[in-house]
Write a structure and sequence with these properties.
The protein has 261 residues and is α/β, with parallel strands linked by helices. The chain has eleven helices and eight strands.
């Protein structure tokens, strides 16, 4: 994107994933990215070779950036806001710290133009999804700028405040569960003679292809399942085995555990 300067307060996994995704598609110039973290010396080491700007303070990041991504742990968000509020005028703030919706953010950041989001790790390869709360304080131009930047990382989904948690859980947590599934499929593949590398490629590409097929055809997942299941075939035997072991019920229970229900 032309001329926009993007800052990151915090340099954990999500900040690094977003930066990697932006640079991967040349969405912006490396030198237009500014980052800060709690440990400046470690930050300078971690950013070697990226040609981005490691800043000593959070205030410096805000002063030099047009759009700032708050990517710190939830327990330090208030401290960060207190540090930067004096230089936060006419800036776009994108919160990715967990546990914050718009109303909670505005209690501690009344004058910040802010939107609360939950990106997932696949933004790293520009196939992510960013969940956004539809209630925010960005104006039309600021929102357009945000959308233009984050659309480079994948899709954007707006939800209301009551849906923010569950949407974030499904899109943000599920890559971990999906990788457990990939690992299990690969273990079975290795058991029956595939190399580990072959098994991972087959399982991961199957996930990519299956997801793309459902998104593009908009078929019900059960329809796609039935398309693969021939009468007296191998797939239906596997489906029934998973059902007997409570596969879908286990997934629902997993999400219920996270949501505290």
């Amino acid at each position: 994107m032309e001329n926009i300067r993007v800052g990151f307060i915090g340099y954990g996994n999500m900040a690094q994933a977003i930066i990697q995704g932006l640079l991967r598609v040349k969405a912006m110039d490396n030198r237009a990215i500014y980052v800060s973290s709690a440990h400046y010396d470690q930050l300078t080491i971690k950013t070697i070779g990226l040609d981005i700007n490691a800043c000593k303070t959070n205030q410096e990041v805000v002063e030099k950036s047009d759009l700032i991504i708050i990517a710190v742990k939830p327990n330090v968000v208030e401290t960060v806001i207190e540090e930067i509020k004096g230089v936060a005028t006419n800036k776009i703030f994108v919160n990715v710290a967990a546990g914050y919706n718009y109303e909670k953010m505005k209690l501690i950041a009344k004058n910040l133009d802010c939107i609360c989001t939950i990106p997932n790790l696949a933004v790293m390869v520009n196939e992510g999804i960013t969940i956004c709360e539809d209630k925010h304080s960005l104006d039309v131009i600021q929102l357009a700028t945000f959308k233009k930047l984050f659309s480079k990382l994948g899709s954007i989904e707006f939800v209301n405040d009551k849906q923010l948690s569950i949407a974030g859980t499904i899109s943000g947590c599920s890559p971990a569960f999906t990788m457990m599934y990939v690992e299990a499929l690969a273990d079975a593949g290795v058991q029956f003679g595939l190399t580990r590398e072959q098994a991972y490629r087959l399982a991961s590409q199957m996930i990519v292809g299956s997801g793309k097929m459902q998104l593009e055809t908009k078929l019900h997942p059960a329809q796609i399942k039935d398309m693969v299941c021939s009468p007296n075939g191998t797939t239906i035997k596997g489906v029934n085995s998973l059902e007997k072991d409570g596969f879908k019920g286990s997934v629902v229970k997993c999400i219920e555990t996270i949501e505290g229900r």
